[in-house]
Design goal:
Layout (H helix, E strand, L loop, with lengths): L8 E5 L4 H13 L2 E6 L2 H15 L3 E5 L5 H13 L3 E6 L14 H29 L2 E6 L12 H21 L4 E6 L4 E2 L2 H4 L13 E2 H13 L4 E2 L6 H13 L20
Parallel strand pairs: 1-2, 1-4, 2-3, 4-5, 5-6, 6-9, 7-8
Helix pairs in contact: 1-2, 1-7, 3-4, 4-5
Length: 269
């Protein structure tokens, strides 16, 4: 692929609609070339043609269903072999259709395949490729429910907690490599995801629902500022800092050679 942008190429998964399509729009406006990844090839082609025409960038389409291993491997290959790629938006995912006790286990398996297995494979692929090139950035789209699992459907919340933990762990390994990583934690966002799982944004408090363009604009500012975790709706960053400080206070006690005295266990007895 011949690169036409000084910024390089952004590969965006889940790019046919919602957050992914909005990232594609905003990044094209910034001057990035694009590789757009999703299942719906027709929508991708239409989006790619429009963005190329409007912004003078190059936009390629890579049709892939990331719940299928062969398609995940095709995207993995593109990340590793296309040296023009400097930014990876790891966005593809699906949401819950209701509480776990009423859920179809097969659908939950599909959610894990997409939200966890594919997201992990591609984040690691991008990280390894970018480290070898000495530059690049990875944006993992998690969710605010990663910090509040008890308020949402469990498998979905757990999948997004995985994405957050993966981002934090990769950040430690990526230190001083020239590669940056960010986790974005949206709350309710006005996209098609609710319609796809049989819900409606109309049933939510409008004060809790962010427009997708506002979300992506804030997330990109967070990326520009070098934030590891971006919560677009959080005004007081000291709240999250206090949370991470308190969590850090647990570290000395996470692994010791004896049970805590509060359990009344006599070690070695």
């Amino acid at each position: 692929m011949t690169n036409t942008s000084k910024l390089g190429t952004a590969l965006v998964t889940g790019a046919s609609s919602g957050i992914g399509a909005t990232y594609a729009e905003k990044l094209a406006k910034r001057g990035y070339d694009l590789v757009l990844v999703a299942r719906d090839a027709d929508r991708l082609k239409a989006l790619a043609a429009r963005l190329a025409s409007e912004h003078g960038i190059k936009a390629d389409v890579l049709r892939a269903d990331l719940s299928q291993r062969a398609d995940v491997l095709a995207v993995d290959k593109r990340l590793r072999e296309d040296g023009s790629i400097t930014l990876f938006i790891n966005n593809a995912g699906i949401g819950p259709k209701g509480p776990l006790l009423k859920a179809d286990p097969d659908y939950l398996d599909q959610m894990v395949d997409l939200n966890v297995t594919a997201a992990n494979r591609l984040a690691v692929a991008a990280a390894q490729a970018f480290v070898a090139r000495g530059k690049g950035a990875i944006v993992n789209i998690a969710s605010a429910v990663a910090l509040a699992a008890e308020f949402f459907s469990g498998t979905y919340a757990a999948s997004k907690a995985f994405v957050l933990a993966l981002t934090e762990a990769l950040a430690a390994e990526l230190k001083d490599t020239g590669v940056w990583i960010q986790a974005v934690l949206p709350g309710y966002t006005r996209t098609e995801i609710f319609d796809r799982v049989g819900g409606s944004m109309d049933n939510l408090d409008p004060n809790s629902v962010m427009e997708v363009g506002d979300l992506v604009d804030a997330a990109l500012v967070g990326l520009d500022r070098g934030e590891l975790v971006t919560m677009p709706s959080l005004a007081d960053t000291q709240l999250y800092e206090a949370y991470t400080t308190a969590r850090g206070g647990l570290r000395p006690y996470l692994s010791l050679n004896k049970p805590a005295t509060r359990y009344g266990v006599v070690a070695g007895a």
